[in-house]
Specification:
Shape: globular
Helix content: under 10%
Oligomer: single chain
Number of helices: 1
Radius of gyration: 18 Å
Strand content: over 45%
Largest sheet: 8 strands, antiparallel
């Protein structure tokens, strides 16, 4: 059954390295308390139009045993820029339940081949949900910047800057920890 999520899954990649992922398909079919729930249906579209990669996924879960039904959605766009090895894009994920609770995560990313085998990668994301006391944007966001040399011969190197706020919570993602730089 995971084949539905695995085919052309690379389009949905929005990886923060050791800081987790913005979208992790294994979160679908699990209630927020991590108990399995039945999926009533879903649809997924993945397409390439010229330099653009487009992807969307939507799933509806059933209501059971005090667990509200949920509508889960992911939209991803990505476009090649500057050269065939570089791209820029964005992603939005949403988790909305029948009781009015929600979690929306937005993000922008780019990986640019600057010259030779040197790449600059940047990713930023923020989450929004129904909390009464809304934390600052810095507390509910994640930022990642990396410069690296990718090669199988000779000298390789990388340096990175990574920050995750204390209240950053992507419900459809995977996040090993929060509040670190």
């Amino acid at each position: 059954k995971r084949q539905f999520f695995q085919e052309r899954a690379g389009v949905f990649d929005f990886d923060f390295g050791s800081g987790g992922r913005r979208f992790h398909s294994r979160q679908i079919g699990l209630a927020p308390d991590r108990t399995p729930v039945r999926m009533l249906g879903g649809a997924r579209v993945v397409a390439r139009a010229g330099a653009w990669d487009l992807a969307a996924l939507g799933v509806q879960t059933e209501r059971r045993d005090g667990i509200a039904s949920e509508n889960l959605g992911v939209t991803r766009i990505r476009r090649r820029v500057f050269n065939p090895f570089s791209y820029a894009g964005g992603m939005v994920t949403s988790r909305v339940d029948g009781d009015g609770n929600y979690n929306v995560a937005t993000g922008l990313d780019a990986s640019v081949r600057v010259f030779g085998n040197d790449y600059l990668t940047t990713r930023s994301a923020a989450t929004f949900d129904g909390q009464e006391a809304t934390p600052s944007l810095a507390d509910r966001s994640q930022f990642y910047l990396q410069w690296e040399r990718r090669t199988s011969r000779g000298l390789t190197y990388f340096t990175q800057l990574h920050r995750v706020g204390a209240d950053y919570r992507p419900d459809l993602g995977f996040l090993p920890r929060t509040d670190f730089s």
